[in-house]
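Can you please make up a whole protein chain along with its C-alpha cells because I've never seen that pairing?
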Amino acid sequence: MTMTDFGEILKNVGEFGRFQKTLVFILCFLSFFNAFHMFGQVFMGISVPHHCNTDWILEKGPNLTEEVQLNLTIPRNEYGSYEQCLMYAPVDWDIESIQRSGLNSTSVCQNGWVYDTSQQKSTLVTEFNLVCHRKQQADISQAIYMLGLLIGSVIFGPLGDRIGRRPVILISILLMLAFGVGAAFVTEFYVYTILRCVVGIAMSGVLINNLVLVAEWVGSSHRAYATITGHVCFAVGQMVLAGLGYGIRNWRLLQIVCSAPTGLLFFYFWLLPESPRWLLTKGKNERAKKLLQKAASFNKQKLSEELLSKLQEDKRTKPGSMIDLFRRPNLRKITLVMSFVWFVNSLVYYGLSLNVGSFGLDIYLTQLIFGAVEIPARLGSMFIVQICGRKLSQSMCLLLGGTVCLIITAIPKTLPVVITVLAVIGKFAIAASFSICYIYAAELFPTVIRQNGVGLCSMTARVAGIIAPLISLLDKYHPAIPMSIYGSGPVIGGLLCFLLPETRNMDLQDHTDEANGIPRSLDVTKEQLVNENHQYHELDPKEQQKSTRL
C-alpha cells in the first residue's frame, strides 16, 4: 500500500475519533497562550501622559507648586494642553525675573521626562523613555518581532519536513518560554527587542507545525473544524489578555504572566504524537504503524494487521525543498496565488488591528471587542468551508473584507460610528479569511513539501506584518491611501482564488507528481492511481520529464 491509500487507513483508525479530539484539545492550550505572546506588547507599551522634566527651576524657587512650575516652564499646544516634547530653555535668572518676564525660547527636553503613573505603574514607554524622538522605537520593536516571525518561517518550515513536526513544536515551546520570561528582566530596550525577536522566531515554528500536524492526523471531512478550533482559542486568548492587561499595570510582571504559562505545556513531551504521514514519507514505517495502532486503540477501532502490512516505504519520496514548489506548473500557480492570499490577509489583519485607536474607545475594551469579533468569524468559517467549499469561501471573505475597506475611504471622518461598524465588518471578514487560508494551504500542498509550502505562505504573511504599520504612515499624504491599499489587495486576492482547485472532502496529496499529473478527484479509484503510478515509473527519466510537462 502506498501513501496514496493513507486516507483509507485513516478511515479505519478513525478520522476524528478520541485520539484526534484529544490532540486538538491539547494543542488548543498552545493556541490560547500564543495570543499572549503575539499581542502582549500592546499593553506593555501603552503610552502615558508625560512632559519634559523641568526641575531646574526648583533651584530658583524650591517652593513652587507643580501647576506653577508647569505654567512657567512648559509651553501649551494649540489645544491648550502642555506640550509633551517641548520645554522653555533654562535661563540664569532669579525666580522673580522668570515670573515677571516669562520664558519664550523653547527647546526639546533636556533632562528626561516626567510621567503620569497614576494609571500605569510601569510600561516600556516610561522605563525606556520611548517618547518624542524615541517614540518610533516601540514601532520598530514590533516590526522586529514580526521579522522574527518571518525568520521562523524560513527556519522551521523546512526543518519540520526534515526532523518532524513534533520536535520542532517542542523546541519552539522551549524557546518561547525561555526568551519570553527572560525579556521581563532586561535593562536595555534593544536587548528586550532581540529577545522578543527570538520569541517571534519560535512562534512561527509553533504556528506552522501545529497547523500541519493537525491537518495530517485528521480526516478531510473534519479538518476544518479541527484547525479552526485552535483559531477560536487564539481569539479567546486575546480577550483574556485584555483582562490581564487591565489588571496588571506593571510591564515586567505582565511579561512574565504572558510567557510563564507556556511552561505548563511540558506534558507535550509525553503526549504529543508525530505525524504518521511524515514518518511514512521518511521510510519510518514501523514507527508509523505503532502510532496508527495506538490511535486506533484509543479510538476503539480495530486496525487489521493485514492492512498495516501493506504499508511499504514509498520509493518516490525524496526530501522536499522550496524549489519543488515552483518546478511544476500547477504547484507553481498554487504557490503564487496562496502566497498572495496569505500576504493580503496578514496586511489587512494587522493593518486594522494596529488602528484600534481610531475606535475612540478604551484600549482594553477595544482589544476585548476585536477578540470577541474573531470568535464568530472563525466559527462561521468552520461551517462555510464545508457548505460552500474552500475556494468560494476564501474568495467571498477576501472580497467582502476588501470591499468594506474601500467603502471606508469614501466615508467622511464626521461619521465615526459608520467607520467603526465597517471596520468591525472588515476585521470579521479578514479573520474568517485567515482561518480559511490556513486550512486551504494545508490541503493544497503535498505532504513531502507541505511544511515548505505553508512556510513560504507564512513568510509572505510575515512580510505583510512588517509592512502593515508602515502603510499607516502614508495617511499624512492622504487619509484614504492606507485603506485603499488594505481594500484593493483582498479584492485582487479574492479574484485570484478562482484559479485554485477545490479541496473540500478530498484526501491530502502526498507527492508533487500527484499535484501535477494525477487529477484530484473523488472519482479516481485506487486501481487507477496504482496503474498511473506504475506506468509513470516504467518510463525512463527523459520520458518522465516529458510526461510531467504534459
User: Anything to note?
Assistant: Confidence is low (pLDDT under 50) at residues 313-317, 516-539, 541-550. The chain has three domains: 3-47+131-499, 50-115, 518-549.
